[in-house]
Amino acid sequence: MTRHGAAIEALKRTGHRLTPQRVMVLSVIAEQPAHVGVEEIQSRVKAVYPYMDQATVYRTIHLLKELGLVTEIQAGGASRYELSASGRHHHMVCRECGGAFDLSPSYLEEFRATLVRDFGFEPDLDHFAVAGRCASCGGKRVSPAAAISTERK
Ligand SMILES: [Zn+2]
Ligand SMILES: [Zn+2]
User: Fold this and answer.
1) pTM of the complete model
2) How far is CA 132 from the centre of its chain?
3) H/E element holding 52?
4) For residues 27 and 50, is the Cβ–Cβ distance under 8 A?
5) Rounded to the nearest whole angstrom, what is the distance from the C-alpha of residue 123 to the centroid of ligand 1?
6) Residue 66, Cα to own-chain centre: how many angstroms?
7) Long-range residue pairs from 111-117, CB within 8 A, at least 24 positions apart, any chain
8) What separation in Å is there between the alpha carbon of 51 and the centre of ligand 2?
């Protein structure tokens, strides 16, 4: 089953009606190769349902988030979304272009261990996002190894 299909099944299991709007918003998020922002979701939904208003799109995204089907990535102001089924990872979010990049959990393992050791503090890093500037927006050059490990698709 595709990730999209799995998300639709999950929505059904929660007992929520599969309205065309819900299916549409879920599809838009599922079909994006990367993390999608609210404006992009809105413009794609509008292309199919010109009369669907912004509030409905927001409500739908919120519902999908509450149900745990969609994860919100917040950094640098704008929110971006992805299917929760994308697996556990962290994000780097660019302040310039708003791009969100996946970061494998291994990068933060040492950080997590340090917080536990020094403060007895167990951080919840599941939706952890680091704001900054990406390579194409003029950040520091990346080593080939780092570039590969942040690529997921
Ligand atoms: Zn950028
Ligand atoms: Zn991600």
Assistant:
1) 0.70
2) 17
3) none
4) no
5) 27
6) 14
7) none
8) 30
The structural domains of the chain, ordered by start, are 1-83 (1.10.10.10), 88-153 (3.30.1490.190)
Per-residue tens of pLDDT for the chain, all 153 residues: 677 787 888 888 888 888 888 999 998 988 877 788 888 899 999 998 888 888 999 999 999 999 888 988 876 677 889 888 767 788 888 888 888 888 888 888 899 999 999 999 998 887 788 888 999 998 666 665 554 444 444
CB count, 10 Å around CB of 103? 19
User: What is d(CA 104, CA 101) in angstroms, rounded to the nearest whole number?
Assistant: 10
Residue 73's SS3 state is strand
**Cα separations in angstroms, 145 against 54, 89, 150:** 41, 18, 9
Going from the Cα of 20 to the center of ligand 1, the distance in angstroms, rounded, reads 34
Across the beta sheet with 79-83, the strand order is: 36-37, 79-83, 70-74
Nearest ligand to the CA of 97 is 1
